[in-house]
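Backbone-to-sequence.
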């Protein structure tokens, strides 16, 4: 396992470098989608779409990030903050997220959850958790922190997380659905930023993000309606974000 505590900082964090890493991740992810001929609305409908359109692009992107951030020497900064943010009551957010994830997973139709589907949904969760969190709440955040206040670093990194989903409209997602997705991902991204701040590490957002997406894909793939409880997370995320910026 990589020892991030003693890893040398080979390249000073900056906005231009972080943006180049971000663009590299996007290039790998969407090239994989293009080559595999994605139909966005069919992602996760079966094991093959979970493999080609969910797991592989995120795993390829994650591999790129693991290598480039090791070369830059950023892993310690990406994974850990020097202090944890207040307030402690903001821990209600990850707790509620865990409850929603558990509810989704318990509701999955196990008769339709084949071993192959389970494998690729799980690997997709690993890829999306590592990939999207490492590039946005990781590399982008620390690059922005080098030149901006913490509030601006949160805002710009979360906007870029939301922007990751704009190209979905080029692969079959209706434009109006994409616009709604941008709003929801901005709120969810803000919530995951809160989780990083209160825990002091990116590891917890990586785990929660991966489990969140995989629980939704597993439900859809087994033809189980998504639980309405997921919508509780969004207002809680907003309240906790305000609490973090008003806290010490």
């Amino acid at each position: 396992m990589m020892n991030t505590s003693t890893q040398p900082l080979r390249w000073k964090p900056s906005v231009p470098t972080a943006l180049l890493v971000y663009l590299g991740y996007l290039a790998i992810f969407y090239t994989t989608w293009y080559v595999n001929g994605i139909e966005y609305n069919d992602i996760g409908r079966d094991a093959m779409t979970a493999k080609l359109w969910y797991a592989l692009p995120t795993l390829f992107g994650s591999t790129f990030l693991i290598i480039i951030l090791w070369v830059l020497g950023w892993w310690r900064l990406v994974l850990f903050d020097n202090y944890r943010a207040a307030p402690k009551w903001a821990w209600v957010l990850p707790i509620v997220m865990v409850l929603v994830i558990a509810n989704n997973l318990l509701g999955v139709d196990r008769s339709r959850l084949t071993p192959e589907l389970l494998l690729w949904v799980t690997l997709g969760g690993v890829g999306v958790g590592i990939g999207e969190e490492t590039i946005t709440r990781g590399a982008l955040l620390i690059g922005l922190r080098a030149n901006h206040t913490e509030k601006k670093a949160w805002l710009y990194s979360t906007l870029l997380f939301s922007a990751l989903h704009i190209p979905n409209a080029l692969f079959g997602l209706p434009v109006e659905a994409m616009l709604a997705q941008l709003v929801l991902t901005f709120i969810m991204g803000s919530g995951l930023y809160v989780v990083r701040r209160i825990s002091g590490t990116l590891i917890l957002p990586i785990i929660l993000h991966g489990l969140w997406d995989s629980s939704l894909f597993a439900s859809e793939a087994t033809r189980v309606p998504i639980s309405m409880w997921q919508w509780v997370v969004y207002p809680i995320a907003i309240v906790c974000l305000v609490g973090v910026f008003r806290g010490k």
